[in-house]
Amino acid sequence: MQMSENVLALTQIDLHGTATTSSEAIDEAGRILVAAGAVTAEYSRYMHDREVLVSTYMGNFLAIPHGTNEGKDTVLASALSFVRYDEPIDWGGHPVRFVVGIAGKEGGHMRILSSIAIIFSDEEQVDRLLVAETPEDVLEILGDVNV
Length: 147
Prior knowledge:
Elements: E1 13-14, H1 22-35, H2 43-53, E2 57-59, E3 62-63, E4 79-91, E5 94-103, H3 109-120, H4 123-131, H5 135-141
Parallel strand pairs: 1-4, 3-5
Antiparallel strand pairs: 2-3, 4-5
Helix pairs in contact: 1-2
């Protein structure tokens, strides 16, 4: 496996997010993507634009903010950010404990979205993510995103 195929690294996993609103959570997820070198600082604005168009709440405590097509030039490489919150965030009336920010280069986000959706459709996996103690535990559960 080449390193370029790894969209999620341990440094992109935060098990104790500090945001208290969906807007702050989008910013938090975006900052991790910027720090990973996957997007420019402007990408978060396109994540907020997407949220205005359609909620990125997916069910099972998960929201997947990602940019609009207009922001694709701000994506430098495909990557994920994973933030878990100790207390649920109100996401348009839904409780969210996981915010998975996605940046997809050249359509790469569709495969990543599919992998995340499969994992989060399994309540046993969601329960494992809720109690995961280390970024390594999370990466083990989400490992399919890196293939």
